[in-house]
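writing this on my phone so excuse typos. first protein, seq and then structure
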Amino acid sequence: MVASTMETPRATGVGIDIENVSLAYGKTVVLRDVSLVIAPGEFFALLGPSGSGKSTLLRLLAGFNRANAGRVRIGGVDVVELPAWKRDVGMVFQNYALWPHLTVAENVAFGLEERRWPRERIRQRVRDMLELVSLAGFDDRRPGQLSGGQQQRVAIARTLAIEPRALLLDEPLSNLDAKLRASTGLELKRLQRRLGITTVFVTHDQQEAMTIADRLAVLDQGVIQQVGTPRQLYDAPVNRFVAEFVGSINLYAGKIEDGAAGACTVSVEGLGRARVRPDRATAVTAGAGGMVAVAFRPHAVRLAGTTPVEGLAFDAEIGTTEFLGEFVRYELAVGALRVVADLPHARFVEALLPGARARFVVSAGEIVVLADPPR
């Protein structure tokens, strides 16, 4: 096999430092004292609901928005006063922003021609970029002849062609169907790993962010609620917003029976009481009698066996069921409470029938205690 001579963009690996950034449009505050450090070569996600400020923050990095206060450094360079075209970052927009009247090759070459590269070097770079994104041979097609995933790859190739120091992606997978979104996301991550380019992408899809990102920041109302790896945010949310936004969760008002900061015993009326490990209740400052939020994921709910489990234990009536392939989702009635349980599906195991009663347990290690109780 002949070795490839393809010239890929240089690996940038620049760090991004956002320090005490605030932004408002008139009296409408969009970003509130945001500070964030993104490591060189990191694949970082900004996650949050519509209106949380995530796209505004991305556009601020690109130079399309201007902060009222704070500093932004890319590769150690303060870019606050620099216009977008001088920041040397590449941005892929949600609608890809391809020129419909130009061919794929002409779209990829556009930024290079603007920079007055030599013609032969442009041709070589276009070939290299299309090979990089697995679109070799698509040179003469127009965007309207491509699928959504192919259009996205053309937009990425066009952006990477100019060798940006960082890659910014605004909802890069939102225009794709569910199956294509998953496969394209993994392709994007493999490409990013190959190039080593610092990448920041915006999404409102928590599953997408957790699948692709090295770390992510969850925003709400212009404030960063938590920063961490996908596993950290899923297993150890710091407040109710993060717990409810990142994945499915059961969340109830609970009471501290004893203890304060750190290890404590909590009780939830109808579900029982449990001694919670210090690392699962680190945000709790209430003493005995204080109200807290008690949370656990649906997959943490299990049918009670013969071996006692330290944690919550309760009897429940089976309500609605939802077959989801790898597991069956049950809605359980415990008095006035509703508990969602995801039980593994096995081919020769009968599903629980609506109306039946069974005993369930939740291990204490799966319980998270949060300082802000449900109202």
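second protein below, same order as before
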Amino acid sequence: MLSGMKSAILAVVLICLISPLSYSSKFSDKFDEESLFENLDRYEKRQYEGLRNLMNDHQKLHYLSIPEGKDRDEWLIKFWRMNDPTPSTRENERKREHETRVATARELYHLDDFPGWDHRGETFIRFGKPDFVTDVAGQVNENVAKGPGEVWHYYQLGIVVPFEDSFLNGEHTYFMEIPTVFTQYPHEMLTDDYGKLTEMYAFSPWNIYGLSFGPSDELMRFYSYIENNTYFHSADIKRPDLPYYFDITAFKGEKGKVKAEVSFEIPAKELSYTEVRDGWKTDFEASIAVYDMEMNEIVTVMDTVRIELPVKPEPDSPWLLPAQFTLALKPGYYRFGLEVKDHETNKHGVYLISRHILPFGESLAISDIQFASLIEETGRNSRPTFIKGPLRVIPHPIHAYRIPAPVKFYFEIYGLDVDNEDFGFWEIEYSVEPKKGKKRDGLGFKDVSTDLSSKISTSGFGSLQTQRLEIATENLWEGSFRLTVRVMDRRTRESVEKTTYFSILE
């Protein structure tokens, strides 16, 4: 069965767009948020502590870099106007509800340290009051040592959020799995409409590409929301008909443009299928809209994606089916709206995310790091989808890998200095370290340094090079990790680096 699924025919949406949006070099992806935060007055600090849960890094930098308080006030007026669910009325319901959530988070989940509350407070600000809370006792035995915690259920959002009081001091942090004790609760503990939450553990340990993606769709959907800086006002909340995971990776394009790939994965069990001669097919509609900073629509494109499989996915199938838009954009700041709709059932999912598309220039640079579920050499019989030069790279937007499956990723190097024979020489070094710099140690955590690193020296023809790498996961552990890739031109000694994140699930 597994080998058959690997040969599935996967569709890709490939669309090139040109945008007139101009680019400002004032902003970059990296900034010292803590230092800039100290420039705010006391009132602005309290405002920002809650607002940062609604902002991406570009918006944070934009706001914190404004020198005058009155200009920051004007920026916030514009920010809330852009996020007003009823712009034709005087009241901004989203702003009012946000301020109520922040006050509640500060009262119920208070911390003396920035931002003023623990992860329960952040979750409350992002998603509101949970529909149901399960208290979970700590576990200590020869196989596991975990602190007590809570599991929050948001039925309409289709997510669960587990927390652990790992230091036994009342501060709850996100946890990467549903505690075992929770899965042992009887089915009747949950409401009839959402009792399915207790059934989400019966799944096959592999997907269409031999990977598995965590203990539940509900949990992984939550981490996708956090990764994409998602916020839900009560007016936004509705049962997600067609969940999917997506990310945006940028590569150097032609004539100063950037090739932005919007990749997404849809749980196969959520789609409808029709039997065809060689198996089963699913058709769904995908559309993307791109807006500038003033929320002016730059372009909207719609297409139909067809995916053929040799067998029909089971109702509990863990398979994720990938697809992709490719956009040619000028560097700048954009808001991307992505919608996916099943033709047969009319299920649909809609997401909006902001992204700063940076230029690459002519000097040494590397693209974004694109995680993949499969990377293979192209050949005569290769499928004509997800092709990048000599490679076929199946995108993996959820960025989650289960031990022992290796972490696979792809990136491109630009602007290498070449010799008289047009050969470049470069060195690649990557390092992996825990996102929080800690590793579980019994009921608590211990500080750890870089856990894994490697260095490769190589050469090739031309100033542009494509790279594929794999990282073994046997020496990693469950949690979130920071991946840093550094490239050094061995002729000029110039170096650049790129950082991203992925998760490991046991």
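Residues 93-108 form the longest helix (16 residues). thats all i got for now
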